[in-house]
């Protein structure tokens, strides 16, 4: 009873991770919409540290029914808050029931713990990792949580297939576009070009948008949210037949996460490159193309002797891969490629979100 | 072009708004730069550049906005280069950063700027950066905005384009030849070939944009669009200028890469405005050697241009340029080595063939250049010039054109064409070696032919082209034949025109250029010329024959001093006079003139009188008598007769070699003619004049003294006084009296013993009586004064005579013979 009125002994719990000073911090958007710093972990990395239980009043006993720490990976769907899914839950017993007479530290270790997914905060869903310490007491447990951010690294071979496609509207507009890959890491550069085969409309400008689509749930309970992450004008004015317009879009500057497919059977995050042509009557012609985004391990430090001149460093990352149109036109005539019709008009639901 | 053109006021307003934003943002940008906040500065720069996206401004206004923005971007560039050239590593990610801008126009302007900064700071590969920039600019397909963006690209990179060495191999050679420790050039800095590629790409893209302007917007605004385009052409041309400025650009590169690429672009764009401007650009900006080396290629491209292109201007520009070059180059070897003329000639011919719709004036203008080239660069190759005239003749014949109007479009070009060899050779006689010249000249209408003939004569006069031989004379006369006799195509009233008179005067002047080496030959020439001119018809004779007569007289005087050198001297001189007489006779009979031949006869008489050939007095007599018979028969106007009589008297007073028996009939006839004047006052005046003959005349028999026949003088004066009294008009009579008083006084002063002073005073009192009766008038006043003078003079004369006649008064107004210059 004494505790109820603040007379009883109480304790403050802190989770200190190992090598906190050296560990990389990343910003992540919290539920409040603001950015917070979090420690960064990768899949398979051990999570170790110490739990500090500091007594608030000296020389007074602190009773507890046991202390434990859990490592939790959890998917939380906002419209169904009660139904959280822990896809990982590992518990470590730190202390058996007993009592503390002074501040105590409890080291913990989750060895090579599996973190299969990337942390994610979306519109309708959140995937988070956190440590939770619970000091079990008779009336109210004391708990302390610490969010961790997990980056899921992937790797794809460099000789990724490019996206090439000829699209058009009969007797009105035929274009061939090419993106150099269909999988881009988050600091990658999208390099490509648009080749105009037939132009009978007065185009005002052309832009590329990166659309993010989050799909949560399944069946009738599917929630789909699209948002435009980036909008990038790549052409001003009306081209004529034979013109080839370069595309170079650096991804690093945008707030992007890796593509996610059916994570925990709960949700997916997809990215699309949306090529939009706008004519002088403000009609929009567009073609969406899904691309996969993935997280690449940070660049390894330059080895000594690798590249004698420092200014070579990725200064113009896109350039080397960019081919002059004349060459590429000859290189891949694609008669066999299926002709896809561009969608036209702004009535498309995808486009509505574009204008928002 | 611009989507919402708006009127000028609206444009001004839009421009002002934009410029205000540019100013504000650039101000913030510079503040950030000062504080070292590069990223913030770039953000303001982007804001500023957003204005360049406008579609509201016409080219003229957009240009002003561009200039302002450029200025600010230059500040940015200078500042970045200054701050970071020592530690360029800090800039490394800028090239990427600026590419996040989502609007393409500001993004590319900034990218170009940063690219420039990178190159200047030695960051990255210059070659790669240039290539990247020129490629990325493809994103702007809007003609106006694209042209300015690419122009900015050229401006920004102008000073950093690699201009050495020509090839990678040369770079190796260059590097291996450097002293130890010197900085070697890196291959990635690029070579001039990279620059060429860079500029050529930019050029081609700009041209495409420029051409595209033509095809955008409603067709009713075509004229306006063309005007807009012309204002923008310099932007496109700058690329060519930059290429031409490359020091490492060799002839070989120009021949193999540069020109073919430029021509390909020009030909394939199929836009007349572009083609015409750019071809002219090529001609103007590249070196003469280059042009010489690529003549065939260039001309072949000309043949492929659109029909609307004014090829003439291009060819002419090229020909003129090369003509200037080859004439000014010291060696002069080029024209002979290069078959410059043949190439041009051939190309021009095939061009004309391939373009049947080409206007004739353009065809002629083309030949103007060709002739100019032939004449100026190959002064010795008359066949070239002739060939050109021949070519033109054939074209004109094919088109069946004749009677080209002198001042029409074609005529003006034709005049230019024909004037070239005249001006250049400075010797019209050489034109006779161009048989085709005359044939081309014949295509002119009458006026045109006359003009060019007159031009040739003027040239001969200026250059003093002497006609020495019969061949010379024939050649010259052939060329100016339209002026020498009536032409089939001559308009009826052409004789009345000022031009006709001017031209015939020129012909007359030309005749004085006939100068054979000796007197005999000269006489033959003049005689021959006389015959030719004789066919010119009455309107020309009056201009053309007098010079012949004067030339003959001149020849006589020249020959006069050569008596000792020629046995047949007398006979030849006589022959010359006969010839002159015949010539003058033609003036009377054919030209139906009177006073002019009369003067010429009198002149001849004086000339004959001066030359002491055998029986020269017969010639003098003949000439004076002929003159007098003209006066009798052909001079009807009384005033003219008075004048003619005065001339005759003057001539007779000048002659000294007539025997008395020849002199007297002439004198008598003269006095008779004087007395036969139609009006009484004229009789009086003429008689007073004629009286001088008996006082001052000289004959062979007076031994070099004057005649002093006072009796005859007084007789004539009395007669005239009598006639004067018969005059009824008081004023006229008064005039005559005063004149008579003066005449009497004169002879009295000159000691004529037969003069009776009483007689004079009687006349004076009569005059004074008369004067009282005169109505008051200015004339009467003046006569009163004159009378007073006459009286005073008589008083003085009386004193003089009384004072032993020591002095003699000055001669009165004796009639003078016509002098040589007065003949015309």
How are the elements arranged and paired?
The complex is a heterodimer of chains A (356) and B (824).
Chain A: E1 11-17, E2 25-29, E3 35-42, E4 47-55, E5 62-64, E6 66-77, E7 85-95, E8 98-100, E9 104-110, E10 120-121, E11 125-136, E12 142-151, E13 163-169, E14 173-179, E15 183-185, E16 189-199, E17 203-216, E18 223-236, E19 244-250, E20 260-263, E21 267-279, E22 284-294, H1 325-331, E23 340-341, E24 343-344, H2 349-355
Chain B: H1 8-34, H2 38-49, H3 59-84, H4 94-97, H5 104-121, H6 126-136, H7 143-157, H8 168-176, H9 192-214, H10 222-245, H11 251-269, H12 272-285, H13 288-293, H14 295-303, H15 311-328, H16 333-337, H17 340-354, H18 360-377, H19 382-398, H20 409-425, H21 435-441, H22 446-463, H23 470-479, H24 481-484, H25 498-511, H26 519-534, H27 538-560, H28 569-589, H29 595-610, H30 616-634, H31 638-654, H32 660-675, H33 680-696, H34 710-726, H35 730-749, H36 757-773, H37 778-802
Descriptive report:
The complex is a heterodimer of chains A (356) and B (824). Chain A is mainly beta and 356 residues long. Chain A folds into two domains: 11-151, Immunoglobulin-like, CATH 2.60.40.640; 163-297 and 316-355, Immunoglobulin-like (Sandwich). Chain A has two helices and 24 strands. In chain A, the strands form five sheets. In chain A, strands 2, 3, 6, 7, 10, 11 and 12 form a seven-stranded mixed sheet that branches. In chain A, strands 15, 17, 18, 20, 21, 22 and 24 form a seven-stranded mixed sheet that branches. A five-stranded mixed sheet of chain A has the order 19-16-14-13-23, with no helix packed on it. In chain A, strand 11 (125-136) and strand 12 form a beta hairpin. Chain A is elongated, with a radius of gyration of 27 Å. The relative contact order of chain A is 0.14. Chain B is mostly helical and 824 residues long. Among the domains of chain B are: 1-124, no CATH class; 125-172 and 187-265; 310-443; 445-578. Chain B contains 37 helices and no strands. Chain B has helices at 8-34, 38-49, 59-84, 94-97, 104-121, 126-136, 143-157, 168-176, 192-214, 222-245, 251-269, 272-285, 288-293, 295-303, 311-328, 333-337, 340-354, 360-377, 382-398, 409-425, 435-441, 446-463, 470-479, 481-484, 498-511, 519-534, 538-560, 569-589, 595-610, 616-634, 638-654, 660-675, 680-696, 710-726, 730-749, 757-773, 778-802. In chain B, helix 5 (104-121) packs antiparallel against helix 6, helix 30 (616-634) runs parallel beside helix 32 (660-675) and helix 32 (660-675) packs antiparallel against helix 33 (680-696). The longest helix of chain B has 27 residues, at 8-34. The A-B interface holds A 205, 207, 230-240, 243-246, 248, 250, 252-253, 280, 310-311, 313, 315-317, 319-320, 322, 324-325 and B 3, 53, 88-89, 92, 95-97, 99-100, 102-105, 107, 118, 122-124, 128-129, 131-132, 135-136, 138-143, 145-146, 208, 212, 216. Chain A: Residues 324-356 are annotated as: Disordered. Chain A: This is Vacuolar protein sorting-associated protein 26. Chain A: Keywords: Protein transport, Transport. Chain A: Belongs to the VPS26 family. Chain A: Residues 331-342 have a biased composition (Basic and acidic residues).
